[in-house]
Amino acid sequence: MEVLEEIKGFLGCETPDRWIDEAVSQQDILLIDHAHCEKKAASTAMTLMFRYVDRPDLLNKMSRLAREELIHFEQVLELMDARDIEYGHLSSARYAGGLRQHVRTSEPGRLIDILIIGAYIEARSCERFAKLAPFLDSELAKFYRSLLKSEGRHYQDYLGLARQYAGEPIDERIEFFRVKENELILASDDEFRFHSGEPSW
Questions:
Q1: Most Cβ neighbours (<10 Å): which of 50, 89, 122, 187?
Q2: Can you cite a GO biological process for this protein (predicted)?
Q3: In the chain, what are the domain boundaries?
Q4: Cα 19 from Cα 27, distance rounded (Å)
């Protein structure tokens, strides 16, 4: 899949094998947190639509993205129900918050940073779906592979909008967040989540 190779280059580091091992052994938590991630992704897209009402390209892409993420949310809930996994509250991974703490406060820097972070979150999700699939049962593997196309497009939408609205090269800013994202993915984490780092236990 061409976009997957592009995503690997964009991310700059792969998910550690120890995270994969933990994901396979904690599939209940994996699915519960995955559901939370899909819901949060839809919420982020809606927030952008309400904040930036004067940007038609953003409105169109985020509207479609929000719908797709909510469909994914429903699909994860359906999978969980079939496996007798109860959906409930989980504490958030430090991943998204760790990236968002670097968002600039003035515009257009704020928008550009949020879009770049969105690209990283979608790209990392895509990379993890692809890397996890070979180790999962056929039903879950098929579902995760089915998400690759849409998640890959979401990454491209976020990055394309960031470049479009910046009005200037943003390669340095992308590299800044690549470093921060890699640090979060490769650092030790005390609890397992869909976007957590390497298990510390």
A1: 122
A2: tRNA modification
A3: 2-199
A4: 12
The string of DSSP codes covering 121-146 is: HHHHHHHHHHHHGGGS-HHHHHHHHH
| Tens of each residue's pLDDT in the chain, 201 residues | 678 999 999 999 999 999 999 999 999 999 999 999 999 999 999 999 999 999 999 999 999 999 999 999 999 999 999 999 999 999 988 999 999 999 999 999 999 999 999 999 999 999 999 999 999 999 999 999 999 989 999 999 999 999 999 989 999 999 999 999 999 999 999 999 999 999 987
Two structure tokens written together for 133 = 């699939």
Superfamily of domain 2-199: Ferritin, core subunit, four-helix bundle (1.20.1260.10)
